[in-house]
């Protein structure tokens, strides 16, 4: 197996990526695009790039990815994508695809590095598949924030994606529809404001979504009134009303406010609240029903555990992913 850092000669690819090639891979192999986050706190863009490159070249590989490498013998690329406060690249939200750096203290050079992230990743994919002489369509893999990146990328560029593996989705995987029940679904909830969305190509993408059955990690949580109580980790707990529900803060227009505004805008939070509600498990089930109603080839699996402990089932998760991949590989041209 060979690992190397690629600094592309293509002037449109500003960021590096790591290419991992197993021995004796087949020309029928699919490239796995590993979308993993970076610890950005207190680090410059350059420091993040250097740290992630070192980790990716070293022995740092999550268990599920390693299982896919061993069982499938497919090459892997890891795009090295730094993150900024107020510019959550790993999430591929609306600010990122619009190159909206509002609120970011950033140099012109770093702005150029982090612009058009999805286009850069697409070009990395095309460059890697061409150099390896393998299938042109790839397998995306993400978890938590990068699961949103994986699904968002498959929405924006379905023509280069065969399979999307997204875990820890919080039930918020992007829907390939513009509106539902009279509600306009803005990206990344839906595709209302995505021009030239290619539904025909998206229908060819297969999806493996999974979540822990106790996962309550909620990036779309509206801002809450906080209580005077704390959890075991010292974090203040939100206040609940007499019905046992969370008490949300609203602005003067009666609109909910985002807790994590680098994930969702105020308008998007209110759409999610009205359309999906605020419970991860219920959202996941509704997301599943909507994908299936559109006849999209997808599975939505739940495993025991929360956002972290779900990986106590890592062998089962990896086996299920491999089975889902192999289910079609012999019968479908990708």
Specify the biggest β-sheet.
8 strands, mixed
Unreliable runs, pLDDT <50, ≥5 residues? 330-334
Continuous helix count = 10
The CATH H-level homologous superfamily: Alpha/Beta hydrolase fold, catalytic domain
CATH architecture: 3-Layer(aba) Sandwich
Which percent bin holds the helix content?
25-40%
**Total domain units:** 1
Q: Strand fraction band?
A: 15-25%
Rg is 20 Å
CATH class: Alpha Beta
Q: Under CATH, the topology is which? A: Rossmann fold
The first-to-last residue Cα distance is: 24 Å
Order of helices and strands: EEEHHEHHHEHEEEHEEEHHEH
Shape category: globular
Give me the side-by-side strand order of the main sheet: 1-2-4-3-5-6-9-12
- The structural class is alpha/beta
Total strands: 12
Mean pLDDT: 94
Keyword list:
single chain; alpha/beta; 8-stranded mixed beta sheet; two-stranded antiparallel ribbon
Question: How does the SSE layout of this entry go?
Answer:
Blueprint: E1 2-6, E2 17-21, E3 32-35, H1 45-57, H2 63-72, E4 76-79, H3 94-97, H4 108-114, H5 117-132, E5 138-143, H6 145-156, E6 161-167, E7 179-180, E8 183-184, H7 199-202, E9 206-212, E10 226-230, E11 236-238, H8 266-275, H9 280-293, E12 298-303, H10 314-329
Parallel strand pairs: 3-4, 3-5, 5-6, 6-9, 9-12
Antiparallel strand pairs: 1-2, 2-4, 7-8, 10-11
